[in-house]
Amino acid sequence: MGDVVTRWLKEHEINPDISIIDYRIERKKHEWKIGNDEKVLKVKNPPGMITDELWNAIKKAYEMKGRIRIEVEGEEDLAALPAILMAPAGANVIYGLP
Predict the structure, then answer these.
(1) Which residue range is the domain that position 52 belongs to?
(2) For the chain, what is the domain count?
(3) Mapping DSSP to helix (H, G, I), strand (E, B) and coil, where does residue 10 land?
(4) How many angstroms separate the CA atoms of 42 and 98, rounded?
(5) Torsion-angle region of residue 15: left (phi > 0), alpha (psi -120 to 50) or beta?
(6) Least C-beta-crowded within 10 Å: which of 31, 66, 77, 98?
């Protein structure tokens, strides 16, 4: 969950099944190359919220096959909560705080 964690994992050749990013680190916009090996779901989610759109994208990502990247326009900080709640048994959810 999050840009810093996703970037670190990819730099260490660990490819998460699902990543959720908003292209922001500590509220500052940043750009980085992620690769094209993932299916992308795009959602809008304002700061401090978990919208139905984000919730449903996380649910859909768990149901899909392959690597999924959820790109959030707005903020993804609270996305870990539904990701943990919906995670299948044995899944790991990695969430970092800057």
Answers:
(1) 3-86
(2) 1
(3) helix
(4) 23
(5) beta
(6) 31
- Token digits of residue 76: 């993804």
20 lies in a domain? yes
The torsion of the CA quartet 11, 14, 16, 17, rounded to 10 degrees, works out to 130
Q: How far apart are CA 4 and CA 23, in angstroms?
A: 9
Asked if 41 and 61 count as a contact pair (C-beta separation under 8 A), the reply is: yes
50 within domain boundaries: yes
**Per-residue pLDDT tens over the stretch 57-90:** 999 999 999 999 999 999 999 999 999 999 999 9
Its pTM stands at 0.91
**Alpha carbon distance 82, 56 (integer Å):** 9
Q: How far apart are CA 69 and CA 34, in angstroms?
A: 10
CB 35 within 8 A of CB 67: no
Per residue, the 3-state secondary structure of 38-59, as one string, reads CEEEEEEECCCCCCHHHHHHHH
